[in-house]
Amino acid sequence: MSSTSALWLAVVALGLYHGLNPAMGWPLAVANGLAQRRSRAVFATLLPLGGGHLAAMSAALLPFAWLVGYVSWSRAIQLAAGGLVLLFGVYRLLRRRHPRALARIRPTQLAWWSFWMATAHGAGLMLLPFTLGLCRSPPEAGGGSAAHAAVMGAMGTSNVITALSVAAVHTAAMLLAGLCIAWAVYRYLGLKFLSRVWLNLDAAWAGSLVLAGAAGVVSAA
Amino acid sequence: MESVRLDPTFHPSPRLAMQAEPEHIAYTALLSPDRSRPDALAVVDVDEGSATYGTVLNRAELPHRGDELHHFGWNACSSALSPLSCNAFLQRRYLLVPGIRSSRMYVFDTQPDPRQLRLVKTIEPDEIRSRTGYSRPHTVHCGPEGIYVSTLGGGGPDGTLGPPGIFLMDCQTFEVLGRWEIDRGPQELHYDFWWNLPRDYMVSSEWGLPPQFENGLVPEDLLGNKYGHRLHFWNLRDRRHVQTIDLGANHQMALEVRPAHDPSRDYGFVGVVVDTTNLEASIWTWWREGGTFHARKTATVPPEPADPARLPELLKGFAAVPPLISDIDLSMDDRFLYVACWGTGELRQYDVTDPLKPTLTGSVRVGGIVAHQQHPSGRAFGGGPQMTEISRDGHRVFFTNSLYSTWDRQFYPDGIPGVQVMCRVAPQGGLELDPRFYVEFGDGYAAHQVRLQGGDCSTDSFCYPSA
Questions:
Q1: Would you tell me which of A118, B162, B239, B466 could form a disulfide with A56, CB atoms 3.0–4.6 Å apart?
Q2: Among residues A163, A184, A142, which one has the least CA distance to residue A81?
Q3: Where would I find the H helices in B152-226?
Q4: Which residues in chain B touch residue A200, judged by CB atoms under 8 angstroms apart?
Q5: Contact B55/B439 with Cβ under 8 angstroms?
Q6: Which chain A residues in 185-214 lie under 8 Å from chain B, judged by CB atoms?
Q7: Is the model's pLDDT at A74 over the cut of 90?
C-alpha cells in the first residue's frame, strides 16, 4: 500500500472512530427519533451534526493546508502542526473536563453544537498530520526548480482542495458510522444498549491526539 | 470521579429507571425544631431483605446549629446522559444539603460506604451571598450546566434585598459559580423549579420571601393574597424568562412543580396550598401547545369542617381544616400523582393518565390537625403526610410529617415528632400504609425530605423518551 492510500485510510478510520464516539452526537439522533417516533428524525438529526463536523474539520485543516504551500517553510509548519496536536493531546489528558459553554448551546442548534464540540475536542486537529502528509505528497514530484511564486500559488490551491477533500471524506465516514450505530440502537438494540456502549473515551481520545501529533512530528522530521 | 463505564444509576429513559434495582437505603433530612441541636441526615434501611429493615442505620450530624434542613439533592443524576452537556461520566455520589435558615450548604460524600456519610465541604452563606446575591438555598437539581440551586431569599439580613433566584454550582468542585438567570422578567418570588431537558424549558413556582415564612405563616399576608401564585416558564439554555401564568391571587402558594418524566410529554403539575376564598387546595396541570404554556385547575381538595375548640389559634375563626397541599410527586411512568394534604392528614393518589382529568384512585389517612389518625401499626403520627418520595418502580411511596419548624408549631402546637412511613401501591392504583414500616427518629428531631439511593421520582430528569 502506498503512503498516500495509507493516509487516506487513516482519514477514513478516524471518521469512523469520530462517528462511533457518543460525544460527537449520535445519541441525539436516537433521542430525536424516539421522541418523534419516526426514523426520519434520526437522519434529520445526523445531517446538521455532520454539517457542523465538516465545518469544524475545514476550519482546523484549511489554514495549515494553505500555509504548507509556502514550500520553504513546509517542514517547519508540519513540525509545528504535529507539535500543536501533540501538546493539545497532552492538555486533554491532563484536563479531561469538557468546556461548560458547550452545555449552553440549545438543542435546536445542532450544527453549531457539533462544530464547537468537534473543535473543543480537537477532532479537526487529530486529522491535521495526515492531511498535511497528503498535501505534501503530490507536489514533491514536480520538483523545486519551477518558478517559486507560480508553484506556491498552485500548491496553495491544490492543498486547500486536498484539505477540503479530507474534511469531506472524513465527515462522510463519520456520518456513516454515526448513522449505523444510531439506527441500530433506535431500531433494534434499544436504550439499554446505549448505556452499555457509552464508554468514557476521554483518555483514549486524548491519547489519539498525542499519537496523531507524534506521527506528524516524526514524518516531518 | 472518573470511570470507563457510566454510573449504573444513570438511566437514559424513565422506563429503564423503573426497571433498575430497587432502593436499599433512604436518606432523610432531620431538623431540630428548637435549634438546640445540630440538624442531621439520617440513613434509613429500606431493604426488605435486611435484618435492620425500617430502622435508622446512622445519623450524620452537621457541625452547626439552626441550619434548618429542607430539601437536598444529588450532584449528578440521569440528566448527565444528555448528549449535549458532555458530562456523562459523572457519578451520583455527593449529596448537596442546603440549610434554608442559615443559607449554609453542606456536601456529603456517600462513598465508600453509603451507610456512612462523610461531610467533605461546607459552603458558608457569605460565599453564596457574595457570588450570587441570593440566600436561603432550597431545591437542588443536577442538570446541563452543573448543579442548580433555587433560593427563596435575596441579599440583606432578611433576604429581601433583591429577588431570589437560582444559582449554579460546579458539579465536581462544588464551587458557587453565580446566578443562573440572565433575564428574570417579572419573577420576584421563588420556590421550586424543574425542566424538560430536550425541549429546553424550565418551570418555577413561588412561595414567599423570608419574612413571610421564617417566623411562621403571616396570616395578614395570606388573607391579603401576598404569597406567590404564579408559574414562571424559562428558556433553559438561554436562561431567560419567557412566560408567566398567574393562577389567580386567591391561589396562595404554588409550590412543587412536577413535569412529566418522559421528555416527549409536554406537561406537568403544580400543587396550590390554599385558596383564600374557600380554604380548598388544588392541583393544576400546565402544558405547552404551539410554543405557549397554559395552565388549568384540574383537581381540588375541599376543607373539612371542624369544631373550632379543636383547632389551633390560626384556624379557629374558620371552623374548618384546610387540606394544605404541601407536596405532590409523580410516579416514574407519569401515571400516578401523589398529593400530600398536610392539614387534613391524607395522602391522595390520582391517576393522571389523562393529565387534564386526574381521577382519585387511592387515599390513606394518617395524622391530621383534628383527626390525629393513628398509623396502622397502632402508633401516633404527629403532623400529616408531607414530603413524598416514590420508589423508581412505583411500588412504594415514602413520606415524612413535618413542613417547616415555625409552621409546624402554628398548625400542630402539640409538636411533630419526626417519623417516616411508607405506602404500598397496588399495580392498578390504590394504596395502603405498610404497618411494618414506621421509622422514628427520636431526640426531638423533625423529619423532612427523603432521597432514595440511586435516585427517585423527584431527582432524575431524562433526555430520552420511554418509547
A1: A118
A2: A163
A3: 210-213, 219-223
A4: 2-5, 88-89
A5: yes
A6: 191-192, 194-195, 198-200, 202
A7: no
Cα separation of B91 and A156, whole Å?
Answer: 49
Question: Does the CB of A164 have a partner CB in chain B at under 8 Å?
Answer: no
Say what the pLDDT of residue A144 is: 47
Nearest CA in chain B to A121: B86
Spatial contact of B98 and B70, defined as CB atoms under 8 Å apart: yes
Cα separation, A140 vs A98, in Å, equals 40
Percent of chain A past pLDDT 90, that is, above it, reads 64
Give the CB-side neighbour count of residue B253, counting CA atoms within 13 A.
23
**Mean of per-residue pLDDT scores for chain B:** 96
Percent pLDDT > 90 in chain B is 96
- The residue-averaged pLDDT of B200-205 equals 97
Question: Which among B4, B13, B84 has CB closest to A199?
Answer: B4
Contact B94, B74 (CB under 8 A): yes
d(CA B156, CA B200): 33
Q: In B, which residues are within 8 Å of A101 by CB distance?
A: none
Q: How far apart are CA A215 and CA A83, in angstroms?
A: 10
Q: Best residue in B171, B464, B466 to probe A by mutation, most A CBs within 10 Å?
A: B464
pLDDT of residue A139: 47
Tell which B residues from 100 to 129 touch A, by Cβ distance under 8 Å.
none
∠ CA(B301), CA(B307), CA(B313), 5° rounding?
Answer: 90
Q: Which of B13, B86, B239 to mutate to test the interface with A (most CBs of A within 10 A)?
A: B86
Cis upstream peptide for A129 (omega within 30°): no
| Full-model pTM | 0.95
**A107 pLDDT above the threshold of 80:** yes
d(CA B45, CA B59): 12
- Which region among A77-81, B164-168, B401-405, B444-448 has the lowest average model confidence (pLDDT)? A77-81
Cα dihedral across residues B8, B10, B16, B17: positive or negative? positive
Give the confidence band of A1 by pLDDT, cuts at 50, 70, 90.
Answer: low
B2 touches chain A (CB under 8 A): yes
Q: What is the CA radius of gyration of chain A?
A: 19
Write down the pLDDT at residue B85: 82
Lowest mean pLDDT among A211-220, B192-201, B220-229, B364-373: A211-220
* List of chain B residues whose C-beta atoms are within 8 Å of the C-beta of residue A202: 2, 89
